[in-house]
Amino acid sequence: MNYSPEVTAYIIQKYEDNPSRETVNALAEELQKTPKSIIGKLSREGVYRRSVYKTKTGESPVTKEQLVRDIEDVLGFGGEALAGLEKAPKLVLKQLRDSLV
């Protein structure tokens, strides 16, 4: 699965014009390669950008543990001062953190 310098430049240009999974799939079909092969080549060339996971509300995901740490920071407590609070519902933790900020 070697790529010539011309093909590599072509792949990079196409991907930089539209960095999406659809572009990867189109390149794979056009060049008769697998999408994994195209992604691997783009990764080795340093141009592939992994898609970032977002929640249903469009926010970046945050863990309950991180929410508890944020609350501890706002309240000025040391680490593990609120141990066990991460068992509360995530929505409650978000509301508590947001009300303290």
Shape: elongated
Strand content: under 5%
The major pleated sheet works out as:
none
User: Unreliable runs, pLDDT <50, ≥5 residues?
Assistant: none
* Rounded radius of gyration (Å): 22 Å
**How many β-strands, per DSSP?**
0
Helix-strand sequence? HHHHH
Termini gap: 53 Å
Structural class: mainly alpha
Provide mean pLDDT, rounded: 90
Helix tally?
Answer: 5
The level of helicity is: 55-70%
Considering the chains and any ligands shown, give keywords for the structure:
101 residues
Description:
By secondary structure, the protein is mostly helical. Helix 2 (21-31) packs across helix 3. Helices cover 56% and strands 0% of the residues. It is elongated. The protein contains five helices and no strands. The chain has two domains: 5-44; 64-100, no CATH class.
Detail the topology: elements first, then pairings.
Elements: H1 5-17, H2 21-31, H3 35-44, H4 64-75, H5 90-100
In short:
With 101 residues, the protein is mostly helical.
